[in-house]
Amino acid sequence: MKRLVMFALVAAVAVAFTGCKKKEPTLGERMDSATKQAQKASKDMAKEADKAAADAKKQMDEALKK
Predict the structure, then answer these.
(1) How far is the C-alpha of 12 from the C-alpha of 18, rounded, in Å?
(2) In b/e form, how buried is each residue of 27-55, taking b as 16+ CB within 10 angstroms?
(3) Radius of gyration (Cα) for the chain, nearest Å?
(4) Hey, which bits of the chain come out as E strands?
């Protein structure tokens, strides 16, 4: 019985120390994250550029009609 209690105590302490560590992202994971963010930003910028071009075209058409 003492052996079982001692084993449970050691297991609880081991889990407490090893289970509390925060997982650090690896360099590859960081690079993947940065790549995904850059792709998203480029898509957003492309949408904005298309919108600006459409607005400019609309203004040019209105100016030519006058």
Answers:
(1) 10
(2) eeeeeeeeeeeeeeeeeeeeeeeeeeeee
(3) 30
(4) none
Amino acid found at 24: E
User: What length does the chain have?
Assistant: 66
- Taking only the tens place, the pLDDT of each residue in 4-45 is 788 888 888 777 777 666 678 888 998 999 999 999 999 999
Question: 33: Cβ–Cβ under 8 A, 6 or more apart, which residues?
Answer: 25
| Token pair of 52 as six digits | 């600006």
C-alpha count within 13 angstroms, C-beta hemisphere, residue 59: 6
Distance CA 49, CA 41 (A): 12
pTM: 0.53
